[in-house]
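Batch job 17 of 40 flagged for manual review because the log was empty.
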Amino acid sequence: MENTILFHLSANPKLTKEIASILNLPIGKAEIERFADGEIMCRNLTNVRGKDVYIIQSTGQPAQDNIFEVLLFADSLKNSEAKSVSLVVPYFGYSRQDRVARIGEPISAKVVAKLYQAAGIEKIITVDLHTQQIQGFFSCPVINIDTFELFGNYYAQNFNKLGIDQKNVVVVAPDHGSALRARDLGSMFEDASIAFIDKRRPAPNQSEVTNVIGNVENKICVLVDDIVDTCGTINNAYESLKAHGAKDIYLCATHAVLSTGDINPGFKEIVVTDTIEKDIQGVKVLSVASLIALAILNG
């Protein structure tokens, strides 16, 4: 790793510093300018000749700016004769646009993947992709880091301190897309059961619960999702679980997008990760730095 350098752009300075500390790696210097007309300029100020470089940048708000920073800076690193350029994108934006849902729609996740590769990105490390099929949009290696052990270990320790019997825990998927996440998280508990919420989307960023599949009455529910954005899905899930007799409801989600709306204050605890860096009052934040550091170390 002695020939490896990390860079952060606008999105993840704190996370990059933590990863660099774990791996004992230097952080290169990047200069980012925004001109009056909205154009962006990213310049490398570190000698990277013959070095393996990792750019660390999530696609949070402002999504377009964060993507374009990566594209420009990757080109800057190539022009500076870096040996290789890899991208750590803790939150992969546009991941929910991974298929054609209506006639005329683009597959936006595939477009973003092509842009990254066209800029010279040779490897992608990301965290908890919305769907596994996105890996197929790349011709370069993609490492997708799961977070269920991170959440599972946290809850196992926390529930043990609170004296909660894990047999009374139900891991709940808020929709069909989170079924595998619920199954994986459920495997971290002893004899925990799984429940699913059946929902439909009448329009983008809107959801309606139609049914709860599984017994949640008088149970400790852990609602697990990859992305919390407008809060509609998880708030509807909360209300439905309460209506079906759930005792306490915990929420864990990897990516705290939180573009609009507020999370229902009735949740017993809300846990997210730092893939998107923002200050959120009353929310427990778990770091993914060690998971990303291990992925970088293992190449």
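Reviewer: the log was empty due to a logging misconfiguration, but the result itself is present. The CA atoms of residues 13 and 56 lie 8 Å apart. Unflagging and moving on to job 18.
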